[in-house]
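Quick one - inputs below.
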Amino acid sequence: MIESILRLSIERRWLMISMTLILIGLGIWSYQKLPIDAVPDITNVQVQINTGAPGYSPLEAEQRITFPVETALAGIPKLSYTRSLSRYGLSQVTVVFEEGTDLYFARNLINERLGAIKSTLPPGLEPEMGPITTGLGEIFMYTVEALPGATQADGSPYAATALREIQDWIIKPQLALVPGVTEINTIGGFDKQYHVTPNPRQMLSFGVSMNDINQALLKNNDNRGAGYIERNGQQLLVRSPGQLNTIEDIEQVVIKNLSDTPVKISDVADVAIGKELRTGAATRNGMETVLGGAMMLVGENSRSVSRAVAMKLQQVKQSLPKGIKVEAVYDRTTLVDKAIATVQKNLVEGALLVIVVLFLLLGNVRAALITAAVIPLAMLATITGMVQSGVSANLMSLGALDFGLIVDGAVIIVENAIRRLAEAQRNNGGKLELKERLNLVFEATNEVIRPSLFGVTIITVVYIPLFSLTGVEGKMFHPMAATVVMALLSALVLSLTLVPAAVALFMTGKVSEKESRIIVATKSLYKPMLMGAMKLRGWVLSGALILVILSAWLATTLGSEFIPQLNEEDILLQAIRIPGTGLEQAVDMQILLEERINKFPQVKTVFSKIGTPEIANDPMPPNVADTFVMLKPRSEWPNPDQTHTELAAEIVEAVTGQPGNNYELTQPIEMRFNELISGVRADLGIKVVGDNLTQLLTSAEAIREVIESMDGAADIRVEQVTGLPMLSILPKRMALSRYGLNVSELQDMVATAIGGEPAGVIFEGDRRFDLVVRLPETIRRNIEGLTELPVPLPNGEYVPLSEVATLKLAPAPNQISRENAKRRIVVTANVRGRDLGSFVAEAKERISRDVQLPAGYWLNYGGAFEQLESASQRLSIVVPLTLALILGLLVMAFSSLKDALIIFTGIPLALTGGVIFLWLRDMPLSISAGVGFIALSGVAVLNGLVMLAFIRDLWHETGDLVSSVINGAMIRLRPVIMTALVASLGFVPMALNTGTGAEVQRPLATVVIGGIISSTLLTLFVLPILYRIAHKRSLVKT
Amino acid sequence: MTQHRFITPLLTLFTLSALIHFGAANSAFAESGEEHGDEHNEHADEGRVEIAAEIASKAGIKSGTARSGLIKQAITVYGKTVVDPSKVSHIRARFPGTITKIRADIGDRVKAGEVLAEIESSESLKRYTLTSPLTGVITTRNGNPGELAQEQALLTVANYDRIWVEFRIFPSQAQQISVGQSVTASSNLLQSESVIKHLLPNNTGQPFMLARVPLDNTNGQWTPGLLLEGKVVIKQIQVPLVVDNRALQSIQGRVVVFVQVGNSYEIRPLELGLSDGKFTEVIEGLHVDDQYVVENSYLIKADLEKSGASHDH
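Output:
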């Protein structure tokens, strides 16, 4: 079959060239559609269901909202698990579906279930599904600020409420229309509300209750249409407008008549524009601000969407009132552009280096051009493949592309073809007939197509273990493996079709095949060294063995990390305060923090999100603030050589003195990643599942004690669930009945008085604002005074609150976490200096022995160890299987297990170089480095294959083992060095680059370069020696 | 050397899988962002924190000196103004007859003994005068000259110079209220000082008692039927040591203040006595002239407890 393909390619060579044009066209078209991002999106298929429940405490939110929602979701198809969070004013249920579930299908299912439970939820509460976006969806953020001295139309300065109004009603509606944007989220400022704040004494003296005020407002604030009248052929529409428009209108509403005197709102209450009880705030450079964020629709191209948002924002600026400044503070494009520029630079430089090497070593311009042409063509084909399979271009997916590896197959074919052509020309003494030439090319290609097919297949096969990774690792590395495999396969196809066709077409002139000087020089150096090595074979072999053992030990001393952290060039400092810290207090603390950070000359701007935004995609309590520190370009730093890590450390150092803050240093995307992976981030998570929170906490504490006593346990923590100070107003039932009250009446009164009760909407054109009745701030805040708050009785009299209720101040749960519809508390621990598996086993055993759980409570074990276990299990099957597969392929090629095993030795030898280079460059082991080792194994096998095949052929021809080994090694020096050089040089730019994102790719490139150097050296010396030793006996036998 | 043939591939296998395992194992050590929980603030041990003076002043941490003070406990009650029943007089004709003259009109101020009306008795046909029994204002008038004066009250004179408030004292408040306590009565705009004169059960079957408080009304600012808020001072004592309520924070269920010595702030659990809304009596835990944090004391609490603060996603 291969032969017929080859024949076809050579006979229909023009067709092949035109097919190439089609490929180019397709590639360029695909490139336009290629989604580009900085890192792969690792979000699982999840849907958040947020229910805003103003005024609900964690306990109520759980009982009234979270529970029914969770219960409704049970049994949804393809459901993986649910987890939920109940906090003040918010119930959030996160539904995670099995990988590969269609998100829209999932949302539809949820929608259907939610529709069914609407009636069981408290009236007025609507569960809403979160925006159709991913964890990395927040791609663009901007602040809305007033310039100093700017005033509103009425002369007052712009306050946070006014800025929020601009964001909500001018900016947001425009930005939300940008294609690819699914939602505009807002945090900061106050939602404008009209507040009616009655004075309790006035209410008493007129005998008016909160409810009376509410009713009066609700009944006197509406427009009605009343059909039409036809008069003299003309149609008149009839309408009765009665809406309240201004504060004066509201004040004039009559509550009731008291002996023929109307009691108006203004008699008992003040009316003013007030502040909502907000759950989140935003600050920038030490000032309160309003922060907007664009959320990208799933599957869109983050770069183009954030660009479109930025452009739209420019247009929006024209529609803003004078003195209002809208400024982009975070734009994903910047990072993506920088990262992609790094990748591009690496790839282009790598490609150029490879081409230069080809020119130098092949010594034939046309041949080199044909080989080099494979690079862009394979790249275009890969891009087409990526678009078709939905892989985005990013640091990871493009991070393992080595053009050296890609052109290997083509190099072997072209090299052999020009050698044969040159030979034939020498024999024929000049030009060749067309037919002869074609035939020759076919033969030359056919000769080497198998080994090169083989080589490519082996390199492809070594990537298979990457496909066995699941979860986050899988999401990170599948695209990488897919891209490399696609590139290799397209290069393979090209070397089967285009390369022979092009050689047949273009290698028309005289083909000179002269060895370049470098090769000649190397050969003259190699021969005596190889001879020497053959003599001292014992030493060389033991030296190699020692090297392998040494580097195996070295590998254990290298630190380890998951994936090298992408340096986003922005810092995110999470300021964490004690639970129960009020939002306004947190804002004050955050302002001090920002003022300090802003003093750094490297800082361009600093802004923060405190608490939960309008759409609770990231529900932080008010005691947590995300501080985004955006840095100036390096050239503007006082010391441009300072690293980000140093700067971050300096910033943390500087703010450590600020009282009351704990810090967690991370980066914007990194943080979202961590939140997404969330669940349990530690090595071991023990989930105590049950009903009673106190019992859960007791059991969790007991487990913590057990774990604490174990060897290797570190960072043991019990999930923080308590500590929210809560004022409980407990009804006295007897007293209530004495006064003819029901508990609900008391609760309504308290809720209205303190939390506020919506009493309709005030329209200002399109804009609509809530009208709220609640007590004035001075009375609300005075806890002691609340006991004396008059509670109206049905008969118009009143009693003080203390008469019918007890006020109790006590800590209460600050959040209730549930998983799979049961309450749970997690105890987490990391394991240091001990094998994780044995630790988990011991923990399980000791907990079951020492901790007594009451009936109805049980434990679930989870955490990183789970993934680790499953990954290890999978890898311990897949890796040997892969190795066996390679071995099988080798045995197939050589029909000799012995030879296959000799080639196999190249792998540990190759790994030594990789490990040593990592150690030299002070890099930890990571999955990225692991991928480097995988690629390396392929190259090493390929090297050995090329060398051994030739030695064997020579031996079979001549029968002299020693001279065959030496001669064979000498002849194969050029291809071995060439493949090694192109493969390693292709990665050199990647290893040395310092641009944004380079740190993610660096380990892989470092490993490959180091490994290829060692593997080449060792292939050149150890392999011949091993071959000689291995076959000496069979020689003796024969 | 035979063994080599087997050892090498085995070694290869071992090394490769070890390396790949390592790669995976890394996730275990993957940057645990949760470690911040352990970063014990080195100076936060034993309930003491250090805060640089400059930072403290920027953060608005202000200290005050502990000293003796007045605790003035008050409770809020509500009640309506009523006219003193002894200061209202309904003037009737002694003998039925024809009214010949009426000299007073609604709103007129009259003095005690002033002649208000003249009536011709139907029996004796003699004219007699009606005089005002007290100084006050005419509030009603039910007769005109020529009309017959019989049983009806012709005029009402009321004196509003002193007006009473009847504050409702509910059972939960009753124990703290006694006669003689001073009261600040206030309406929307006006306010007036007085003391509780009587404490009596009400006779309407309602559970509250009435505390009667007289208010001076010589300038006529109060009217009957007005609902007033009363702040009754139930306790007022000078105690040797008080703290500002803003300074109080609760840590692990105990009420504490933070004592400032130079740049260090130390936790002091307190035993507290009486309290009004602003100051609280200290029984134990603090000494006179100690410097304690009054404003923004929450920051110190936050700093002390921050080692335990973390964010679980």
